[in-house]
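Example record used in the benchmark description.
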Amino acid sequence: MSDRLFRALLRLLPEDLRAGYARDIEATFRAERRDAPGRLRLTGLWVATLWDLLRSLPGQHWEVLQRDGRYAFRLMRSQPVLSAAAVVTLALGIAANVAMFAVADAVLLAPLPYGDARRVVLVEERAAEREPGNMGYLTFLDVRARSRSFETMAAASQSFATLAGGGLEPERVNGMRVSASYFDVLGVRPAIGRGFRESEDRPGPARRVAVLSDGLWRRRFGASAAVVGRSISVAGNAFTVVGVMPRGFEDLVAERMYGGAEIWFPLGYDPAADFACRTCRHLGVFGRLARQVEPGVAETDVNGVLRALQADHPTQYDRPGVRIRRLEDVFLGPVRPIVMVLWAGVAALLLVACLNVANLLLLRANERTHEMAVRAALGVTPGRLSRQLLTESLILAGLGGLTALFPAWLAVRLVAEHGPSQLPRLADAALDMRALAACCAVTAASGLLFGIIPLRQIGRRNLAPTLRGAGRQTDTRDAWRVRALLAGSSVALAALLLVFAGLLVRTMTGLLAVAPGFEAEGVVTAEVVLSGNRYSAPSPREEIAKVTRFYTEVLELLRGYPGVERASAVTTLPLGGGLDQFGLHVVGRPHANPEEAPAADRFVVQDDFFQTLRIPLVRGRLFGPRDGAGGPLVAIINRTAADEIFRGEDPLGHRVVLGPPNAAPRTIVGIVGDTRHEGLDRPAGAQVYVPHAQWAWAEGAMTLLVRGQGDMAALAGAVRQAVHSVDPDQPVSKLREYREIVATSVAARRFTSGLLAVFSITAVLLAVVGLYGTLGVMVGLRRREIGVRLALGADAASVRRMILAQGMRPAVAGLLSGLALAAVGVTGLRSLLFEVQSRDPLTFAAVAVLLLTVTAAACLGPMWRAGRVNPASALRTE
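Model output (structure tokens):
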């Protein structure tokens, strides 16, 4: 037993040392064991032996590694072109994978910035046949009070704030109005000060408090801790700062759902207010699940509460239900397919790179057959040869990994700065320690992957005939089969990537061909949110008049600027990301339950809105001077609303109510074309437009639209000048060209299709180069055979056909395998496709034709050289 244990320990030594000294070491140990009577001295001998072994092992293995490394570097210097090609090929694959890991780590893998984030959920109310969405305030109060599945719940809505004072220019910042428990739901506490109290989440002076983001605190208040407890001016009103959020805190709820937030205010709703009703569903509701409670259990609980509420208030609910999702699923779920598809793409690219390098190493292995045979004859064991070859492969991979660091860093930086905003936390992507660890892991895995293939080939060969000068032709045929398999596999992976990229490119082509229903080219947009006592009034009618007057004066100024063709304003910009839906009731067609009325997207617009965006008039008329505050209430609907709600009747002249059934009715005076609002891939729903001066509430937040010719920057300057001419205290934000907003709506798909196209083109180039090199090596090794064929009467054309067939067989097999893989794997792309089948015949056929063409082109060079072999020269040199 002791001898077997000692021999097992000896196997930890390097093989060179073990082969030369194992017997002597074992004999010495036996002698010392005989001279160590007694259990205590024997135990001491074992301890000393183990210590000596463990202490010397690293140095001995390091010495062997140094020898193998020096030999590997000498070998690479002797073949610089082959080594450089292998390093660059590997660097491409490794850089793409490391960059993709950094992106995936920031977007998907990093935990959400909340305490115990998996317990934080979004609670969405739904009615029959409607998508789940926001919740009314009274419903929120009842669900919070009756549900037993949550530790706490909170409601939130978007807000804006215009900050003034402190000797700085007025600044408009995005904010949120939240219930007092909002930060408790998120599991985050302010770094300075405190959050909101329940007493502050009520109407009255106590609710004039605010919590600042760290960025706003540093930018506007000089990072002074004394700001807590101090009064600041918000929209002309005094608010007390009670807290500052931690540095680096990123509220994804605010960013992804409300356009970001730098300041938070208490919600402070009065339950008796009109906008706090059960049917006024404009609040996002969030909850922190009780421990051990899953979202499905919470859904069952809240659904029971909603059924009871419907029984108590039958006209304010329509078969209500709820959908509860973890925030990580809400924010990361939609982008997970994009990241996973791209990750699969870079993995396939790395495999192609490894297969190409393996082919290069097979070429080197064929040239080193005699060297291996000599070393084997001198007593070098297969294990020692394997260690040498794997060391060479890992050093080659290490050089590839080092070379990949700069392009990976550059790629991550470019993606973080210019990637689509639909990918959350993309700006946080960086080549950090986690990415460097991933680089090391990918590098090591690549070295083992491409290194084991030539290793197995050498291990299978009978090297003895090589020393006698025989066996070369057999070796060539064996090597060709492996090289052909590797080349075919590269073609298969390239075909897979090409299919994926082709489907997404066709999707992008289809999306860009979709008419949004308006003309965005030549239009500049800008957001204005009115604030200050200047726009407050004792009555809603007076407040509406003040707000309307401001926008009317701004638009009149804009229309007088040189180069401006049209100008208008709207509350919700089509494709701008906002959503504002109201129930649409047709007068004379009452519903037993008003909640069963169809919903329509509501747009409050200024004059010239349709002309500015060139939305076509289908029938009737557009808004004009007669549709002011004193005129009859009117509305315009889109074609979809006319078709779905009136079903063949003429909508013109019908009266409709927008919002609560007791609201004032409006007469439909026009029908306009549909505009895509939620996305180019989403059909238009029912849409209703009402004049700004005739809406029931003052709409101070509007997006200005200016159509003009020439320099867009000049138009943007005109917008600022016009606004500040009417009121210099009102900031203008988000000055953009409308076409950029439309492009942003498809940015994620454009990003994915563009990267996949780059990956697939790179994979095709690598596959073609690999096939070309493989076939060229085969022609060189079979030069004697080709010479014999030509000497025996074969013509050059038949030889060329033979080489072409030999090259195309693995290419065709790889192409068919790749198309089969794509037919199975393309199901993961379905959520990213638009108006194209996942197994689109045109895409598959185009990929087949492209790959057959380029692989046939790759065979032309070796094929031509084979036909020009001189038989006499080939037979004489062999």
